[in-house]
Write a structure and sequence with these properties.
The protein is α/β, with parallel strands linked by helices. The chain contains 27 helices and nine strands. It has two domains: 205 residues, P-loop containing nucleotide triphosphate hydrolases (Rossmann fold); 365 residues, no CATH class.
Length: 618
């Protein structure tokens, strides 16, 4: 018998930034999460499902906001969703360690008569400080269910879901008692009066429902911040942390794991060769599987362990609360570039993937800030460039991997800074928007949250490897293996690809790699930057390893020149599409592309020519 279809409740998850809303969302939805965009807005939208008894609860995670006054993009999204979508229940997540600020949003939800459940989060942290909360009194004061929870530990989740179902189905009527009167319609500055009455009501409710113990003058977070946000130590400490991450990712640990995966694919190639040979497969069929698919995709997937390590360590910093401090300490230097610390968030996202980073510029209210951020975003090395760096540095500078890769990432930041200064003083003049943010307390990251963050990146990488990269690899193999007359050739210099590469290779003569194979690899990098490595895996494939083949095709100088071009040149087509949508201007998109290509070519050519001249002089 077919299982009876579950009944559905639509739930919105609301709360202040850093109240534990994301942790609760992860706890409720687990692996059922899905990501899209808000209708008409290219800001990431998170959704998921939770199952409670015979109910399927569809949860939409609203952006973290302090109020529903639609002044910021996040507030406008939350306000519009609640007004237009009218969810069955709103879970209002309240950080009980800072109730005065969090309950302001609760007051606005009560004013609108929203069917709400208040989730008092971080109660375990509060109780460790010796404070006490009377949840029953809270319920009496607010007139809605008040459920104590710990999102990080999973405490109180069943009670929360039970209350959501009861409110959403009318089993538990919500009184929604408003503890103050609305201002009269003819009262001047009515919004200011609303705000004053909300805050007064919140203070009175907290005083009646909570007992607080005297706290030390400086908390643990304050003592840590005295060091990590110190005006002299903050920035050096930030770069020291980043360098430490690179040492772990690209040093002996990351390299050992990457070498293990590479050895696995080598074994698979040998096994596939033997199986196909025994099956009587033709030469071209064996070449397609071994020299095409396995050599191309395997050369990229071998760097997966390093990608996992990098995002795991970055997630540790983010979930601990340190990344908020990084945005704070970078506000002052970024203002000198014509940007605010708020732009640090999408720029940091750019080290993961340029596409969501470009979409993330929607948080910037100033159009000048937004355009300037998008123009310099491609200089932040996305994770897709990492396999290219790792491949060449392992071939030419194996003893200095962490330092070399750190220098390339740092060089991208420096060129981004110089570009920002150029545009700030020419076509994008003007003041940047003010930057106000809250520094959350330091917390121990949860394993579940880390796992979800890392899995999102792994899933995206594997999907690209199994679709875009595999398709590009097969296409490269076809063009490399057949002549313009569509005859199978073993000498790739007679192939269609060699002819195409021969047309564009002369452009890179001054850069030191004016041959068709590097040129074609760069061309495929426009599809996806990982394709540079997969293409080289096909083009330089054979009996010898890719590392050995590259050592014969490049010198250390030309290898560095090639990496400089990869570092600076135009991002992939998906990123360009996102830039076109966000810029809403073909002209600015063209400026971005021309600027990137120009900087890449001139930096690469200048480095190679100057370095070659110095080498001759020495």
């Amino acid at each position: 018998m077919q299982e009876e279809k579950r009944k559905v409740l639509r739930v919105a998850l609301a709360g202040n930034p850093n109240c534990g809303k994301t942790t609760l969302f992860n706890r409720l939805t687990g692996s059922s999460q899905y990501v899209g965009n808000w209708p008409g807005v290219t800001v990431e939208k998170k959704g998921g499902r939770a199952i409670y008894e015979d109910w399927e609860i569809e949860i939409t995670d609203l952006p973290g906001v302090y109020s529903l006054s639609p002044y910021s993009p996040e507030e406008a999204i939350a306000d519009r969703f609640l007004r237009e979508e009218k969810p069955d229940v709103v879970i209002d997540v309240v950080d009980t360690t800072n109730p005065e600020r969090n309950l302001y949003l609760t007051m606005q939800l009560l004013e609108r008569g929203m069917p709400a459940v208040v989730a008092l989060n971080m109660l375990d942290v509060l109780e460790k400080r010796g404070d006490r909360v009377d949840c029953k009194r809270f319920h009496e004061e607010l007139g809605v269910p008040v459920i104590p929870i710990s999102a990080a530990k999973g405490n109180g989740i069943p009670d929360l879901l039970r209350a959501v179902v009861q409110i959403g189905t009318g089993q538990r009527p919500a009184v929604r008692r408003l503890p103050y009167k609305a201002p009269e319609p003819d009262m001047p500055d009515r919004e200011a009066v609303w705000a004053e009455r909300r805050y007064n009501a919140v203070e009175a409710i907290v005083a009646r429902c909570m007992v607080r113990m005297p706290q030390p003058e400086k908390s643990l977070s304050d003592r840590i911040d005295a060091v990590v946000t110190n005006r002299f130590f903050a920035i050096p400490l930030f770069f020291a942390m980043v360098f430490f991450i690179f040492v772990i990712t690209f040093g002996s640990i990351g390299s050992f794991l990457a070498d293990g995966v590479a050895a696995f694919f080598t074994t698979c190639s040998l096994w596939a060769e033997q199986v196909l040979l025994a099956a009587g497969a033709s030469v071209w069929a064996r070449s397609l599987v071994v020299d095409g698919m396995l050599a191309g995709v395997g050369s990229v997937v071998s760097f997966l362990p390093q990608i996992v390590l990098l995002f795991f360590l970055l997630s540790l910093l983010e979930d601990s609360g340190y990344m908020a401090r990084a945005a704070f300490i970078m506000d002052a230097p970024m203002r000198k570039l014509g940007l605010s610390g708020r732009a640090f968030v999408p720029l940091l996202m750019g080290f993961g993937c340029t596409v969501p980073a470009v979409m993330g510029t929607r948080i910037l209210e100033n159009e000048k800030d937004k355009r300037l951020t998008i123009l310099i975003l491609p200089f932040m090395s996305c994770s897709a460039k990492m396999p290219v760096y790792s491949l060449f540095i392992a071939a030419f500078f194996p003893d200095k991997r962490p330092l070399a890769i750190f220098c390339f990432y740092l060089l991208g930041i420096v060129l981004g800074i110089l570009s920002a200064l150029f545009f700030k003083n020419t076509v994008l003049k003007g003041d940047s928007a003010p930057f106000v943010m809250e520094l959350p307390p330091y917390r121990l990251p949860t394993f579940k949250s880390l796992r979800l963050h890392v899995w999102e990146r792994i899933k995206d990488f594997l999907q690209r490897a199994g679709t875009v990269l595999l398709g590009a690899t097969v296409l490269i193999w076809l063009l490399r293996s057949f002549s313009p007359g569509f005859q199978y050739v073993t000498d790739s210099s007679q192939s269609i690809l060699a002819q195409i590469g021969g047309w564009i290779a002369p452009m890179f003569t001054l850069c030191g790699f004016g041959e068709w194979k590097p040129a074609v690899s760069l061309l495929t990098g426009l599809i996806a930057k990982e394709s540079v490595v997969s293409s080289m895996g096909v083009l330089y494939g054979g009996a010898e390893s890719l590392t050995t083949a590259l050592q014969g095709a490049f010198t250390p100088l030309s290898a560095c020149s090639f990496l400089l071009f990869v570092l600076f040149y135009t991002p992939c087509v998906a990123a360009l599409s996102a830039i076109r949508r966000e810029m809403a201007s073909l002209k600015w998109t063209a400026i971005t592309v021309i600027w990137q290509l120009g900087v890449a070519w001139y930096a690469s050519a200048l480095f190679y020519q100057v370095a070659s001249l110095l080498q001759k002089c020495i």
